[in-house]
């Protein structure tokens, strides 16, 4: 088993948060996991991406030229990373903020719109994570929900609840 995931967007969209959470959830059941974040100099508003690699065998590098999946949250990420897409790559795009070229079979998820309907635009990242988990089934949704509860345990039940709800919306998207 090998899964090479890229998550990309702008600083402040919770890109690194969901990458770290997914990696820490996956490591409970998958023998080899790497997480490699990259931040733009501006932090909020600048570019942000991370690579998560899951494997049943040793991982040679935390970065991959060939990707199995992408979660793209903004147009700058679409423009930067889609030219490198290879056949068979699952592409999830936040269609509220960006468009993919028609030639690519991208899955459009209106994450920001759904997050706004939920009452918190900052939950768009968890909607996208849910959409990814629903399609790949590499980790159990219940395990991700436990990870959300752990990640927000010191920030209050309200944040845990809204992010869990957003994740569940993504599972259905």
Question: What's the short story on this structure?
Answer:
This protein is of the alpha/beta class and 173 residues long. The protein has helices at residues 15-26, 75-81, 111-118, 124-136, 141-151, 157-172, and strands spanning 2-10, 32-39, 47-55, 69-72, 90-94, 107-109.
Task: Write up what this structure looks like.
With about 170 residues, the chain is an alpha/beta fold. Helix content is about 40%, strand content about 20%. It contains six helices and six strands. It has a six-stranded mixed β-sheet with strand order 2-3-1-4-5-6, sandwiched between helices. Helix 2 (about 75-80) links the parallel strand 4 and strand 5 (about 90-95). Helix 1 crosses helix 5, helix 3 crosses helix 6 and helix 4 crosses helix 6. The radius of gyration is 15 Å and the shape is globular. It starts with a strand and ends with a helix. The model has no long low-confidence stretch (mean pLDDT about 90).
Count, helices: 6
- Classify the beta-strand content into a percent band: 15-25%
Q: Quick one: how many beta strands?
A: 6
Strand order of the largest sheet: 2-3-1-4-5-6
Please tell me how large the radius of gyration is: 15 Å
Class by SSE composition: alpha/beta
* Sheet with most strands: 6 strands, mixed
As residue ranges, the low-confidence spans are none
